[in-house]
């Protein structure tokens, strides 16, 4: 039976983040997992234990052994140890030992309070977190996880599902879309890179293989590679535009709930609203700017495209960083809703790690990456959208002339 502290944690969690209040956020509801909801406010909660908290093992950084002199993290079996050093923690968990300890303290009340009523697992929070992270980081099958952690495969599956559920239900605000004040900071950072003002993110789609099929996830990323919106679970054969139009992001922008409700900017007598940059199968819209199709060599339009590529690099790094999580790197076997939960959990962990300056799972090296020549199959856009893009071209030209 759960302890009073555990029941309190579950009750407070359900009151602050009720999974049934919005079907888009229900972990058990296929097929879409929406993390963008502008009507919700990020909330944090500190739980005061009702009884003395049991002592937790802390995983110190290399060179700082525990009082008992141990230098390895025991997984369960006598022959299953993880040496506590940067390489092995990164290899098995995609985080450093300090972040592991921080994350365990953050999630412990929720990881400990959701066991089956008639089947308590009697596993500490470190083991539960270790099992979940090991699966997400390595993509290991459950038989390997069972062997390493000395638990049954059913318990291993429960711990992985439990970690994903806690992250996606209780910590989804880590991938929430910025408010109007925060967007000013986002756009300022993009402008410092390219000279283009009012850009609030780069939108893109990525596909993940599931069994013999694939599912699509739509991301919006800021200049630091932080994911500020993610919607996953669409069929992989849908185009980027079809995914966009099916998303709450599109609906909220079209209704003026986000982006369009922010103050615009006048450039050469053209009103330039807050906008996103896209690529591929997207239309040119007032709030969605695209590169020029086949610009002339060394033209202002080509310089504009090059500036966009600089702004797209953080999004590319975010996508490649997600693929550094082993569970997303290779075809996933299992139900689509489980895959969607894994995508959500890895996205939240990605942002958490960035906030802690833990780059264990971050893809920094893009030396082998090259941007393909942009070519749109859609109409060039309406006159207003074209005028906005032309005005932005002048800002890039001014920015580059100031750098010379």
Automatic annotation (TrEMBL):
Keyword Hydrolase in annotation: yes
Protein's organism: Anisodus tanguticus
InterPro entries given in the database record: HARBI1-like, HARBI1_dom
Location of the DDE Tnp4 domain: 213-351
PANTHER family reported for this sequence: OS06G0164500 PROTEIN, PTHR22930
Main location: nucleus
GO cellular component, one term: nucleus
Keyword match Hydrolase: yes
Protein name in the entry: DDE Tnp4 domain-containing protein
Domain of life, source organism: Eukaryota
Cellular location(s): Nucleus
UniProt keyword annotations, A-Z: Hydrolase, Metal-binding, Nuclease, Nucleus
Family per similarity comment: Belongs to the HARBI1 family.
GO molecular function, one term: metal ion binding
Cofactors demanded by this protein: a divalent metal cation
One Pfam match: DDE_Tnp_4
